[in-house]
Amino acid sequence: MPALRPAMLAGAVLWGMAWAPVAPAAVSATVATVLGALAALALARLPRFRGQLLLGGMISAPLVMPEIITGLSLLFFFITLADWIGWPANRGATTITIAHITFSMAYVAVVVRSRLASLDESLEEAAMDLGGRPLRVFFDITVPMLLPALVAGWLLAFTLSLDDLVISSFASGPGATTLPMLIFAKVRLGVTPDINAIATLIILLVVIGVLAAAALTRHRERSAARSIPGRVSP
Length: 234
Hints:
mainly alpha, MetI-like fold, 10 helices, flat
């Protein structure tokens, strides 16, 4: 029994590390969704302005730039910032979250911008013709139409943040680690049962999420079919 205690302790530490990145990933995904949606709106809806090409290039750069270059650039940025203003004093969860926001917002911007390109602007124009103010039209008409893209962008940003290894390795400091960094360090010495258990749990969670999303989509399709007179749902 005493021989099992170190293994049990190591497993408990690993399970704790498995849940630790969830909150920073959710925060970075939320901020990246907001910033990415605003950038997409600026590029797709605003009239041509000075710096639009530069903004589009900055948004697209993380998509084509190797992760090691992005991580190295962010490392130099944090070091320079610490020399100039004294912040961040230590690299940890905050710098990792900022790094994840930096590259994941580009993916959100691409998803939201593609959705904006297919939207029917006549609905917004009709709402403003009926007396709706621009801000009210944005939240009552535009945001609901963008909701699928916003949800997809948030899930994509959350997955990228939770799964990132290279950029997190550059943005983290001593004593700060993420689940991919911990797993990568452990598998170099051999795959242990706790690693297999965590991988199996992640796969099960993904499968459950996909099945739940499919069931919800099917339910909405049937509800929409019932609401149309004379149409029989399959």
